[in-house]
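Researcher: Please translate sequence to structure tokens.
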Amino acid sequence: MKSKQTLANTQKITPRIIATAILGAWFITAFFFGFGDKSVLDPELVYTKSFGWFLGVWAILTGIMLVYGTISPKVIRVTAFMGTLIYCIRTAFAAWDNFLTIGLCAVMAFMFWLCEFDWSWITKMNISRKTRIALTVVFAGMTGCFVLLLMIMGYLTYTAEAGNSTAVYTQMLWQMSQHFTPDTTLEFGESVSHFAVHFSPIFYLYLPFYMVLPSPVTLYILQTAAVLSAVIPLSKLAKSKGLSNGMTLVVCLLFCLFPALIGGASGGFHEYALLIPLLFWLIWALEETKLWAIVTFGILCLCVRETAAVYLVALGLYRLISCGFKEENEKQKRDRILGLSILGVSLVYLISALLILTYAGQGTLITRFSNITGLYNTTFGTLIKEILVNPAIVIYEILTTSKLLFTLCFLLPLLILPFMSGQKATLVLLVPFVALNLLSDFSYHIRMDFPYALGSIPFIFYMVVLTLEKHPKLPAKKERISQWIALAFCCTLIVGAYRAANESFQAEYLLSGTKEPVTISQTLEMIPEDASVTASSRLLTALADREEIYTLGHNISTDYVVIDLRDEWNLISDANKMLETYRANGYSVEHITDGVIAVLKKGA
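Model: Translation complete:
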């Protein structure tokens, strides 16, 4: 009996199994031989290892897998699949290149197809409500700790965020806590109310906490907690759409691992981060038709920033289109009224806010769209006119290499899951992503490590939930959906490794044993709290709790000038030359540590 069973098993070795064993052994061997002192993309890497040993190990491992495959071909598939995944994750982390990451996801997709797994257990996973909640909390907590670690590490090593949003908002909240005015000197080189630049009263929610513990770390903790709290409305949304506990957990796990979420949330303190939980709550309220919640979270979204109205416009349009125009029933009428109301209020608010900022404030930062409007005619009227009259320029701006790479890295972890619901109306939810991220030529709008991409994340996951809602009703798609979910996890891990590598330089700097951060901290403590300061970009956050602080580029006369002399971290071409320039302009060196930091005092 045993001999017949063994014979039956030996007949399972097919050309596909052989190819799986060969390729799986190749990637496993490459994992062990492909990482040394040199970069994985170094053309001379092959000379640093014994190529003979590589071929020998590859051949032996292939043989072992094929021999064992006569007993259990499934073992070959599992070994090859996991070996390939580990190689792809390790390579993405070691090389962190855009195109390489996309290619590794393609390799993973090929091995996914080759290994022929049955992934139906993902859509059939049955767990209790308590287990789902517990695991969701664990996943969210782990992601939150990682995000918080990145931000605090960047702050303590003075390597974080050249965009200065944390410094701007720290100074603004300090001014609010001292004088109840949202003023900042960092945005325009003069004292200006931030609300003359962006309408963001949502910051008043942060103020009580900042007054108790006035530190950027307080803001980091609050932002991280707010962002990861989005798993609550996401879970409620998934359950309201009929997803099982298992599928709800899958969606929440994908959300917690989503690279754009981790990169954006750890990219500095910014009001845009609040759009994630608020938009999720608004979407849930719309699905449940809870009017009080729709009004509350709609108002809160609009309080984040004037451009948040664009997200509500898209949500109103989706609601309006998805309800249909042919059949009439109470639900359709209600959805149509809701869609029209949200659309109308959002448009009125957006136009009003832009007019107020244009004529009573500092403008609307429309220059971020000067690639479409032109440098000397930068108005929203011109922007709309150019888009309508010259759609070719819109296509051109969206399809630039940098924006295509950003789009791929943003969407790649979820693959085509957001687009499998079969509802064409869901494409409207991508309008804010195109309008606010891809049309602009402002580099921070297409960065995975800055919060501007965060607003589109709730819409992308809303589309995923709508896809998963459909699959129980479409049995033919069950298997395909489960396969795409499994592959989405693999791509999420690969892109996540690539994104983590982009942030790892801070950890490498800290773990190198350098004393530079300690030296900088001790030096900054020498500056009086009431003194006006001009400082290098990466030092601004630590000095922001004062009435006057400026970036070096503003060239404003202040009591002190602080220059970051670290070659790998300062953002100016020659810090030592700038040091000499200030000395020539009447500043004397108060303290200097060569290659680290210099403090100059005016007229001393």
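Researcher: Any highlights?
Model: Residues 1-11 have pLDDT under 50 and may be disordered.
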